[in-house]
Amino acid sequence: MTARVSRWVMQALRVQRTSGTSSIRAAARLVSTTSVSLSDAQSEEQAVSPTGHVKPYIAGQTRRCGLLARKVGMTQLFTEWGERVPVTAFQVENMQVLAQRTPEKHGYTALQVGAEDVAPRKVTKQQLTVFENLGIKPKRHICEFKVSDDCLLPVGTELTCEHFIPGQYVDIQGVTIGKGFQGVMKRHNFGGMPASHGVTLTHRKAGGMGGGQDPGRVWKGKRMEGRMGGKKVTQMNLQVYRVDTRYNMLFVVGSVPGSKNSIVKIKDAMTKPPSEAPIPTQPAHSLPKMPFTVSGAAQDPFAKAG
Fold first, then answer.
1. Is the pLDDT of residue 28 over 60?
2. Pick from 256, 54, 248: which is nearest to 159 by CA?
3. Are 282 and 53 in contact (CB under 8 A)?
């Protein structure tokens, strides 16, 4: 039986302290090649959800802060019935609240957050002064999340994977992998010209661009060749399958835009909001150090009907 993915990931992440930037890449390689055994997963984990500080989530009114996480890679987990679940692994590292945005001063309500500590020499003097005044280590990645008034958090509050509950749905925003300049067949799935008779050197061309004298131009929005990828894309309604408080990791069902080692934004799903959630957040390191996983199906999904 193979070891669980979190154990392999942490072994790779420990290399970071001695081998520099190669650790995340090593973790990604291990995640992409490691499977999780059924007996090992069931022997150590419990299919339960964190319940501390959970309150009703009012759709349209409640708006919690999101998380900045690093995409480690994809792997597969198994339910108690042996059903395979493809998941994407994320790690949240040293994420803290840096500032508040209030309607009285800024005209809107939001939280500025930062993730991943960085050496002071790698930030400007102005930025270093701001972090020193806050009493927080400099952060590599900084962004804002709009929140409701009841979800404002004090400056310095740490946010971890405990912010989300297994089973809830999230929206994840990332930058897609850049493909460079591509033709219409790859970029827009065009069929191309015939590959046999009557075609000379135009097998992969786009074909006609539009009318002749009328309208006398190419319509705006015409699908043509051009730059592909490298854009912000939000994947909506992805289920949180596992929250591992030991390694501050999230496992989400399905694929997520972005390459390995990229930074993504994770927040509560807009069209599938949770019925309850930790509001404004779950205090950091308040839950047991263990994986919390979605409960499996009550009946064997492979059993024959009748």
1. no
2. 248
3. yes
Name 3's Cβ contacts closer than 8 Å, sequence gap at least 6.
Answer: 34, 40
Q: Which amino acid is at 199?
A: V
Is there a contact between 237 and 15 (Cβ–Cβ < 8 Å)? no
pTM: 0.81
How far, rounded to the nearest angstrom, does the alpha carbon of residue 43 sit from its chain's CA centroid? 28
22-35 in b/e form (b: 16+ CB < 10 A) is: ebbebbbebbeebe
CA dihedral for 274, 28, 143, 135, sign (positive or negative): positive
Q: Please count the residues of the chain.
A: 306
Q: Which amino acid is residue 67, in one-letter code? A: L
Cβ proximity of 115 and 68 under 8 Å: yes
- CA 243 – CA 260 distance, rounded (Å): 19
Contact between 92 and 13 under an 8 Å Cβ cutoff? The reply is: no
Cα separation, 265 vs 173, in Å, equals: 5
Question: In angstroms, rounded to a whole number, what is the distance separating the alpha carbons of residues 284 and 270?
Answer: 24
Q: How confident is the model at residue 190 (pLDDT cuts 50, 70, 90)?
A: very high
List, for residues 114-127, the tens digit of each pLDDT value.
Answer: 999 999 999 999 99
AA letter at 59: A
Residue 52: which of 245, 238, 200, 262 has the closest Cα? 245
Closest CA to 141 of 112, 121, 111: 112
Nearest alpha-carbon partner for 285 in 157, 112, 118, 154: 157
Higher pLDDT, 33 or 156: 156
131 membership: H or E segment, kind and range? helix 125-134
Record the tokens describing residue 10, joined without a space: 């942490």
What the block records as the tokens of 192 is: 């191309």
* Rounded Cα distance, 117 and 249, in Å: 17
Q: How far is CA 134 from the centre of its chain?
A: 28
Q: Which residue has the tokens 């399958």?
A: 241
